[in-house]
């Protein structure tokens, strides 16, 4: 049963080499194992993960702004930390900022999912989520919750830095320059938090 799996794997990633040459270079067992692992990861990967992430962020941040941080205290607050982008008592400006951040998260996330593929994007998001939760738990002043959303911008800048976006819906910028600006802001903010 390993031979059909190996042939299908070879056909899916075969470049300029012939199938026979590729079979000689790659041991059968490892290729078949990788193919099975890839199939398992594809079945576990969430379709349109960005949509679910944006909806969960809107729900958690909206509840935090309307009700306050009371429902998000304790252990639940640690787990939902990357989703709480707004604090209690938000006015119009806070709602506008949340809407723009959710729009940017959706735009960059769906583009990044298309560039990376569903399996890699799921790994990217879940690893980022775990790192932001751990960082927010250990160093809450140094790791803001918006790092997860802005990681989509960084990933998009990595995969397609020459793409242009319209800043304030008018000014064209290359994504890589916007990513550099957000990275500088993050470093300055972390430095200011560390000094306090």
Task: Count the beta strands.
Answer: 2
User: Mind telling me the C-alpha Rg?
Assistant: 21 Å
Q: Mean pLDDT score, rounded?
A: 75
Strand composition percent = under 5%
Q: CA-to-CA gap between the ends?
A: 62 Å
Main sheet record: 2 strands, antiparallel
Share of helix, binned: over 70%
Kindly report the spatial arrangement of strands forming the biggest sheet: 1-2
Please summarize what this structure is.
With 196 residues, the chain is mainly alpha-helical. It has helices at 2-13, 19-25, 28-44, 49-66, 75-79, 92-116, 118-138, 147-160, 175-195, and strands at residues 164-167, 171-174.
Topology readout:
Blueprint lengths: L1 H12 L5 H7 L2 H17 L4 H18 L8 H5 L12 H25 L1 H21 L8 H14 L3 E4 L3 E4 H21 L1
Antiparallel strand pairs: 1-2
Helix pairs in contact: 1-3, 4-6, 6-7, 6-8, 8-9
